[in-house]
Amino acid sequence: MAQRNVVVVGASFAAIPVINGLKRKLPSTHRIIVVDPKSHFHFAFAFPAAAVESGWEETLFIPYNNVLLPEQGLVIQAGVNEVHPNSVVLDRHIDASQFANADSGTTNVIPYDCLVYAAGAWHPSPTTMQHFSTKSESIAELQTWQDRIARAKKPLVVGCGGSGAELAADIAEMYGATKHLTVVHSREKYFDSFGPNVDAVVYQVLDKLGVVQFRGERVVFPKGGFPNDGSTFEVETSTGRKIKADLVIPCTGLVPNTSPLTILSANLVNEQGFVNVLPTAQVTNPHFPNVFVVGDAGDFGPIKTAKEARKQAAVAVANVLKMIREGPLHGELSHITRSAPRINLIMGKWTNVVVFTLWGCNIAIATRLGGFFKWLMGVRGSPGAKKIWRALSAKM
Ligand SMILES: Cc1cc2nc3c(=O)[nH]c(=O)nc-3n(C[C@H](O)[C@H](O)[C@H](O)COP(=O)(O)OP(=O)(O)OC[C@H]3O[C@@H](n4cnc5c(N)ncnc54)[C@H](O)[C@@H]3O)c2cc1C
């Protein structure tokens, strides 16, 4: 008898712990079908640094071919366009013999018993690569940024969240006074959802590196975008300020990839585009108890990190297994517990800004300890890429 499917939409930080959590525990009646349009896992934590410094891009794109044994399931390179109550519709046709709903020819429909939606969010390049069909085109995109940044004399970073802060620090540290680097951030404070103390620490780190910073004003993007062709042009902000720049690097935050779920039901997604979720990681609409959401696509609160996604993934795995063993509406499901905000910003090769909570107090410190250990161990950027190579059972 054909195996039934647990479909995982997306194959990034939130999906990998789901896949690894399910693959050894699913009964043999079921297998995992992972769908993602990317050819490789993108270790995006390091993209800000890799958009500045060359020579380590190969390690940031990790193949999926060993993550599942054939009897455990398969990874399909495709996008999901539509989520329906018991099937998903892909953006392309694939060999149908792999699925229970057809036995020859091609299909773009995959049936599922349970769905784990982990399609995350879109960011502008270089935070996420816009070319991802092959590893070489993703690497080429990063290298284009390295060239543009190397040539620019007056780069301007728009947005100072995780990606903007790290990128600005990387540029300033590598090029120092040879570039006049500006950061414009739309809010009055940096990282306000991580507590009151982060803003001043991040500001000081960038200030010491010589970065000119404007907060509480928005860059006005012209129709058709900025030239970014090496010429000098004027960038205007919402306060009327005019800044001379020759390269604008957008780091303007995330846009959730949730439109495929709106086919299932319009009320699944909130005004900001995030999926309304229960503490069980299920969607809030009770008609779809077999649809789970993990990671940045879900409205789990303002802290969107891979660390939080791992907690959501553990709950989704437990509940999917329970549902498959006991049926959709039986027994008590596991719940996600909220934790205090934590973040580790890698601001250049040497400085980390670490934010955590101790005895109820929000603490933010800039430390060079992490940089020192990385230097000792010869690690570049975020040391986490190695963990992903291991999690995907991938080999260089
Ligand atoms: C610069 C930077 C540094 C960071 N550093 C850290 C850190 O040190 N620690 C930490 O915990 N967090 C960090 N984060 C946050 C972390 O990267 C995110 O929380 C995490 O990527 C969320 O994972 P995700 O799988 O939900 O989404 P994503 O990583 O956005 O992945 C979504 C996946 O879904 C796929 N997809 C999209 N649409 C579809 C579709 N229609 N069909 C199929 N597949 C689809 C995409 O191709 C992608 O592979 C950082 C973020 C940034 C920007």
UniProtKB/TrEMBL annotation:
One Pfam family per UniProt: Pyr_redox_2
Stored Gene3D superfamilies: 3.50.50.100
Ranges for domain FAD/NAD(P)-binding:
5-313
Which Gene Ontology molecular function entries are recorded, alphabetically?
A: electron-transferring-flavoprotein dehydrogenase activity; flavin adenine dinucleotide binding
- Domain of life here? Eukaryota
Q: Which InterPro entries match?
A: FAD/NAD-bd_sf, FAD/NAD-binding_dom
Q: What is the name of the protein in this document?
A: FAD/NAD(P)-binding domain-containing protein
Q: Which organism is it from?
A: Gonapodya prolifera (strain JEL478) (Monoblepharis prolifera)
